[in-house]
Amino acid sequence: MADKKFTLHWLALQNVRRKPYRNLGLAALVGIFSAILFGGSILNSQLGKGLESLSDRLGADVLIVPYGHEQIAKAALLRGEPGTYYMRKEALSRIREFPGVTAATPQFFLASLSASCCAERVQIIGFDPDSDFLIRPWIQNKITQLRDGEVVAGSKIRAGAGEEIFFFETTYRVAAKMDATGLGLDTSIFMPLSALYALMRDNPDIVRQIDSPEQYISSVAVKIDPALSPRDVGNAVMRAYAIEYNLDLIVAETIVSETARRLHTLSAAVYWIAAGVWALAFLVISLIFSVTVSERKHELSVYRLLGAQRSWLARLLQWEAFFICAGGALAGILAASCVVFPFSALIFTSLKLPYLGVSGLMAAGHALSVLAIAGVSGPLACLNTVWSVTRFDVYNTLREGE
Amino acid sequence: MRNKYISAFLCLGMGILYIAVPHTLLPVCEYAETAMGGHAAIASPMGHSTQSHMACFWTARAELGLGMLIIFGGLLPALSNSIEQRLGITLMFAASSVLGAAIPAVLIGVCPGETMPCRAGTLPALLILSGLFFLFSLLNVLFLNKRRKAGGNG
Amino acid sequence: MRLRINHLTKRYQRGDSWFDAVRNASFSLDDGALVSMVGRSGSGKTTLLNMVSGLLCPDSGEILVDGINLFSMDDKKRSDFRNEKIGYIQQGRSLLGNLTALDNVRLPFHLQRRSGDSLQRARGLFADLGVSHLENSYPAELSGGELRRIALARALINAPAIVIADEPTSDLDIDTAHEILELFSRLNAQGVAFLVATHDPELSRCGGMALKMDAGELTKATELLSPFG
Lengths: 402, 154, 229
Description:
A: alpha+beta; 2 domains; 13 helices; elongated; B: mainly alpha
């Protein structure tokens, strides 16, 4: 039975250990490439899932918001940046009756302020339970009705179903949680419009600019007849009522395509940078291996003298290259993992893009792909050198070394 | 001989990072906001009103103290020729790294909101820093122990 | 194993002219033979040894290994021949610096698929050669004599038919050189054939066949040669 320790792989590792600093340098270069590729792939996947969520969950075809609040409304939807804005509620009934509109549901957006040490600002969204089609489909345990004092919490609100949450000096019970969306909805709290109006009546300082909150809403989510163009119908609504009610229009498709375009730009940047670093790593590995192997001709001649076949020698050198690259890749993947996973909330908040976490399986898949690319690159980069080494004149090399 | 200077240098770096991360690099929040807006004011024992701070502020303060301790402690191995002393100091560093992680995660904590700067940035940074410091301390302990058994003093 | 070297010639170009490093060399090597080749440096001894081990192709002539021409074999078969049948002790330093003495000796065993325990075998050889205490030393830590003993152990790990030694005592002091030559004699008495190139006439007095190499010409010397040569 062959000795378990003394294998070609073990020998290759011993050879790699002999020049630790040089090989660490090579591994570091591969590590940088691997970190960029792995980190970039994870970020892209997270963004991709966020984009998918965005297009799935935007149940509305258009959103009608107060004039000048298009960006604030998008920020609230995509990033959960709390804001308070409103328009007259009369617009709702006019929009509902407009040709081409199949459904319309109102929301009221209200930003809370933290009421105690360590609480966070959240977006409170009042919705109409009777006409709503935005929120209900995504509630985890499908509740039929919210009782007094009950709210629905977004997935990132730190209170589970059945627990209590406190804001505006009032305690509410979380009746249900929303599925994770990757959007601003995750950090929002949802309550019936009637309950929100009651809250504002009891706390007039919340929105000082309006006397009768029941007369106002923040936005109308509209579904358009599938046979018609949402943009055309939306523009028609604007032509009819924009001036009268001071309205602005957001076409849902625009949000999705804008986000998709930013995602593509980011992907392209990441992959181009990774490709550039890979090309550099490939070149450097090829060069360093060529130099290293020239220095080792006497050692390699000894292997041939002892009876090593050319193919064995080639495999030894390629395994050395593989170990250097695989080691670098593992280190790079680990380093990237220490950045993209713990800091994903920070990264995407800064990028102002929706994202959802990837599964362990997907992350493992990305890691294996990067490891495979890096692992194969080493042996490929030194292919030429390996071929020439197996053809050199052993006799003369041994003589030179004497 | 080289090991002690490398250790001292690394500890200096770690200590600086423990201070810099929550104060400068990925700073924590400072003040709480009240339900009606503005900053909450509480009376101090001295009769002056002070602004209230959230948990993450106190976490940053605690990490400041810990960082200063690590910087000071990091100088000690460079001054010592005794393997046993350096082993003891390194074990203390390992414990300090555990404290460095426990402060923001358990003992004092940070704000609960996932998108708040202290939870999104400061907390993971401190946990990773503590993890690296623990790993470095562990490797150093193994290295010094091997040296001690071999009878070296370097 | 029977080795027949027939009219080997190897030519090299030096500037505009050609010269014969080895010219028309013939001899035979049977099991348990001891052949020493004496000659000055540059006389062609190493060239001949490398042709015999299959590393260098002659320009004319043949080497028959049990009747088969060594140079009609492909690289794989020649490498196998070198690994299984030849134990080579190079001139100068030939151990690999990143392996311990023990691992250097075990290396040839693992260049082919083999059954058996190389560790036990290597330790046995270390014990026979009196260097068990050097198992875990690296070549850089060893003296010339110790290196030569380890090289000999490596040459013997696969129980070869022939040990080829190129100037095995050239960089050793007299006493150490004596010890090495005594080891050769002892192993030869146990049945291992030796082909030794040396400029040390002491070795030719150890018995066996002595050949003289002079400017590429191999001269038959003292003892009777085999009928073939």
